[in-house]
Amino acid sequence: MLKRKIFFIVTLMFVLISCSQTNEEYLIEAIIIEIKENTGDIEVDGPMKVVKSATTQEAVGNKTESMIHTIRVSNPEDYNVGQKVKVNVISNYDEDVWDVNRLKFEVEVVD
């Protein structure tokens, strides 16, 4: 009986933990238009696509119009104005706010 209770509690714990994760992922295919080396901020111009929604946990594919986004990288000296990049943006908070301090950016240079 004790083993069943422990198994139930552990299973319930895993289910609750997996349901509480609210990651959303976005993909920006853009061109670098400005680099601020002192802050690590880079401005990119391009459309953004929702890759994974926190509510559905599947690819949605909604795409925005081309617009300027500010992203933050730890190595801005590795990039140049005019370079094409793919930026994977990962959000782990619920608010619909673009906060470079809380977002995670994975940048890939596209040739």
Account of the 3D structure:
This is DUF3221 domain-containing protein. Residues 1-23 form the signal peptide. Keywords: Signal. This protein has 111 residues and is an alpha+beta fold. It has one domain (23-110). The protein is built from 1 helix and 6 strands. The protein has one helix at residues 2-20, and strands at residues 24-36, 41-46, 48-52, 67-72, 84-91, 104-110. Strands 1, 2, 3, 4, 5 and 6 form a 6-stranded antiparallel β-sheet that branches. A hairpin with a 4-residue loop joins strand 1 (24-36) and strand 2 (41-46). It is elongated and about 65 Å long. It starts with a helix and ends with a strand. The model has no long low-confidence stretch (mean pLDDT 81).
Shape: elongated
Question: Largest sheet at a glance?
Answer: 6 strands, antiparallel
Strand segment tally: 6
Q: What fraction of residues sit in β-strands?
A: 35-45%
**Assembly state of the chains shown:** single chain
Ends apart, CA distance between termini: 62 Å
- Specify Rg, calculated over alpha carbons: 19 Å
Q: What's the helix-strand series?
A: HEEEEEE
**Could you say how many structural domains there are in total?**
1
Low-confidence stretches: none
Q: Which structural class matches the secondary elements?
A: alpha+beta
pLDDT averaged residue by residue: 81
What is the helix tally? 1
Helix content percent band: 10-25%
